[in-house]
Amino acid sequence: MLDNIEGTARYIKNRIGDFEPEVGIILGTGLGGLVKEIEVEKQLMYSNIPDFPISTLEFHSGKLIFGTLAGKKVVAMQGRLHYYEGYNMQQITFPVRVMKYLGIKTLYVSNASGSLNPEFKKGDLMIIEDHINLQPQNPLVGRNYEELGPRFPDMSEPYRHDMIEKGLSIAQKNNITCHKGVYVAVTGPNLETRAEYKYLRIIGGDAVGMSTVPEVIVANHMGIPVFAISVLTDEGFPEVLKPITLEEIIAIAQEAEPKMTQILKELIAGN
Predict the structure, then answer these.
(1) Mean pLDDT of 108-113
(2) What pLDDT was estimated at residue 28?
(3) CB contact burial 59-68 (16+ within 10 A = b; e otherwise)
(4) Domain 2-270 maps to which CATH number in 3.40.50.1580, 2.60.40.1080, 3.10.129.10, 1.10.1240.10?
(5) Between β-strands 72-78 and 178-185, what pairing exists: parallel, antiparallel or unpaired?
(6) Which residues make Cβ contacts (< 8 Å) with residue 3, sequence separation at least 6?
(7) 249 Cβ partners below 8 Å, 6+ apart?
(8) Is the pTM of this model over 0.85?
(9) Domain boundaries in the chain?
């Protein structure tokens, strides 16, 4: 794995020249519009990058975007990878490993998720303060490379507290409804049953989704500070649960995206 990471990073560096990103960004379902705010210098298709997994979802672009956002050099994944696509956890998190080797110092992650907390409504934002991992694999299983991080990384602060507070302050200043809460990661790709939504709420979840946690674990393993934010696109309240389609989820994510973009831009500018 280490050889693959180094080889992929070398390939990318040969194509972006002396551009060295300090910020990594992962854009979730329906949230690719942040790219419009980036002064783009280079774009690389995942399919052209050696050993880089390819997003199989029609609504994920599958591009690495290099440019400037809020005065900072960034690399953005426009299209992330999921366990339910058939990839293993090492493949899903491979891009984060590569971004570290490209020079990033901080990782910003976004996703679309379902609300479990009756006080959090669809269209709201939620900054992730902690998570519960219910996915069946961990990206750190297998041989550990000390060059990447320790065998047993600490996870007492997977999401940086100071960045969470800054994010909440930015939201308040801009009159954006934004909560903080616990994100539960599940396998998917089906949405949850009534009983599952109830269970996830009982164990402490405020939102549920099918991504993010593997990337966050690997970022922590490599000592990269993380900020993560969810757009709440549906409501998993068992008593009033209604069917929802992917098209509705994407539409709600895109409608709420400008608010998320505002928080991310100001947070990146100030860090």
Answers:
(1) 96
(2) 85
(3) ebbbbbbbbb
(4) 3.40.50.1580
(5) unpaired
(6) none
(7) 29, 30, 112, 233, 234
(8) yes
(9) 2-270
